[in-house]
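Structure tokens please, single chain.
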Amino acid sequence: MISSNRSDPEQRMDTDVIIVGAGPVGLFLANELGLAGVRAVVLEKLSKRSGQSKAGGVQPRTAEVLDLRGLLSELKKQALPREAIGGHFAGLPVPLDCRPWNTRYPFPLSIPQGRIEAFLEEKLTRYAIPLRWGQTIIGLEQDESGVTALVSGPAGETHLRARYLVGCDGGHSMVRKLVGVDFPGRDGKFSMVVADVRLAGGTGKVPTHTKHFSEHIQHNENVIGILSPLGDGVSRLMFGGPEQQVLARDAPITETEVRTALRASYGSNIELQEILWASRFSDASRQVEHYQVGRVFLAGDAAHIHLPTGGQGLNLGLQDAFNLGWKLAAQVQGKAPAGLLESYHTERHPIGARVLQNTRAQGLLMMLQGDEDGSALRGLFIDLMRLSEANRYLSGMISGLDVQYAMPGADSSELIGRRMLDLDLYSPTGQTRVSQLLHAGRGLLLDLGNHDDLAAVVAKWSAQVDYIQASTPAGFVGSAVLVRPDGYICWAEENTSPDVETALCTWFGSC
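Here you go.
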């Protein structure tokens, strides 16, 4: 904590929201706030973007989320060539089939994180939200009206005051440390290296396009190597063996270490030309106890860390930001009902905990490959994954398509708390889709049953919620649904549902 030189609790705000961290989570949150007309500033301790690939995939639910804001079609142009094949669980050779979840995007997209960051940064220019490079938060203080951050930059130390602050500053989050929130879990048991490399020569084992993850894994006794193409002659290499287990986390990654790992997995005639970037990581598994501490929030890796298997980390963080963005905007603008901000923690914390659980399970299955009894367990799991119901369960979990939030009425409704399907719609104004109706980041009352009374009810919330009467050729359970700005159904016209006015009050206030 810091002591602010400003004693007046009603002092002028420099901005509405300070976002610490210009990774994909911070940038996506900033875009959401900008869309809603909220002032924000993004602080990044790096002096410029590193260009490193980092995470490499967009899961089906994240693709839907991006489409809900009209961002996906353009971002897809940044995708790498990839076979139309499902994701993976623990690297086992059975693709996860997301088609039973009724999504337009059943296959993961191979888009390196660096490209996603550059894309979101470019989109941020639409909202005149500044991104300040080389700015490190070194202290913060909260009071009843706002947060004051002490920031260190090239010009020295300055104070920056806002109504709220969000830590999107990664696994070693300074924001998390400054607010003193507990980060329980366990340390890593297994260490690996990830590096972006250029190769001077190779063998038939070196992949030229992205296939199912299981086909990229190479084992040689007790060394694992995973090589994936990134385009422009660059590949991402992940590797781990006995040497990596005894080296310190901050030990430099040498060409000798990388070359040894490459040859162990891909043969003696493979040559390393250049290491563009490299770092060490482990299967450490931790999650903060509280995603909100007063006026400070944590999102992405600042709130949870885990083994990056199944391609969930980037996606989990982006969906944290998507859940928080519209709620924080409503609070800043005085439109939020009581408890709306608190629902960020109650909804997202269980989702993060579930990812930590499944990544621990995946890590164990992956490490058992060389063990005779472990191989038997993996074989049994592979057989189970070939069963349609088991595969559907895992595909929904890994992709995020199965998320259901605990909302009023969810216990007695098939729809409440679940994602709204991207239905084709026919309205008096023409053909559209559900996703297109949510581009503005507003709520949506979708009337599929010509309920003439709904238009009059929702009129009070016309500044926050759009109303449309439409029909759909697809079979759909509900005849009318209320959809939150993040694409989740919070009311449905069913016999056991609360009335729509109660749901509008619960999620959009003004009651």
